C-alpha cells in the first residue's frame, strides 16, 4: 500500500518498474510460504490430535512410590487444548484455514473460548 502512495512518475522509471517487480515477487513468495506452512500444519494436526485422543481418559497413579493406594486421575493433556484453540483461531477470518473434517468436528463440539489452562 505504501508503494502505491509513491508518486507515479517515480514508479514509471526503470528503478520504479524494478521495484514493482520485486514487490510482486516478494508477495508471491510470501503467499507460497504461507500455503506451505498451512499445508504442513493441516497434515500435522490430525496426527497430533489422534495421538492425544488415543490416550486413556482415566488413569491410576500411585499415591507415592511405596503406597498401595492409587489415585484415579483425569488424563487431560494441556497440549490438546492448545491445539484445539489454535485450530479454532486459524479457521476464523481473516485466515479462514480449512480444517480437516476430524479436527473441525472437535472444534465444533467444544467452546474453545472457555478453555483455560
Walk me through the topology.
Elements: H1 2-5, H2 8-11, H3 14-53, E1 58-62, E2 70-74, H4 78-91, H5 101-109
Helix pairs in contact: 3-4, 4-5
Number of strands: 2
Low-confidence stretches: none
Radius of gyration: 24 Å
**Spatial separation of the terminal alpha carbons:** 39 Å
Class based on secondary structure composition and strand pairing: mainly alpha
Quaternary form: single chain
Strand line-up across the major sheet: 1-2
Helix tally equals 5
Estimate the mean pLDDT confidence.
83
Shape: rod-shaped
Which percent band covers the strand fraction?
5-15%
Q: Which series of helices and strands comes N to C? A: HHHEEHH
- Let me know the largest β-sheet: 2 strands, antiparallel
Helix amount: 55-70%
